[in-house]
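Lecture 7 notes: from sequence to structure.

We start with a single chain of 183 residues. Read the sequence below before looking at the structure.
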Amino acid sequence: MTPLRFDPLGLWSGPTDLIGAVRALPTIAERLGRVATQLEEVVSSTAPLSGLSRTIEAISRRTALLGAVKDNTAAMSADTAALPRLEEHLAALVQAMELLPGIERRMETIESAMPVLMEVQRHLSRLPDTIETLSADVNTLAGLLTRMLSSLDHLDSSVAALQASVEPLGRIANRIPSRSPKQ
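Now the structure, written as tokens:
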């Protein structure tokens, strides 16, 4: 092997492979400098990744509840399925409530009539006694009417007999010349 000889300006003799390698060192150093710069950029660009890892862990902890939220959402869906029917029932209720003012007016009328109705109720409580008395009076009146009809029948027969007895007198009276008061 050939010994290396150096002069003050650099390497001038030695094995060719070694000389080529030594001459390539500045280019390699320059490239290594660029690689080092790029590595520094990669390091500075990836520095937030450690914080990102913690953030991902926090997100993971927080999203662990999403399963329960999904279950609760499904339950809410089942629970709110009745809302359309409830809306129909509420519409019917609103429609029925529109009748309330008229009903209230009628109730006020009934309320204002209550004192009179109470008085009528008191009188109605005495109605059975009144009907009993009236029934007795009607029975008495029926007896009187029966007697009166009997009397009327008797009177009718008496009037007929009287008429029969007066009729010959009427014929005789018609035959007598009349006297006028002027004579």
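The CA atoms of residues 100 and 106 lie 10 Å apart. Keep this in mind for problem set 3.
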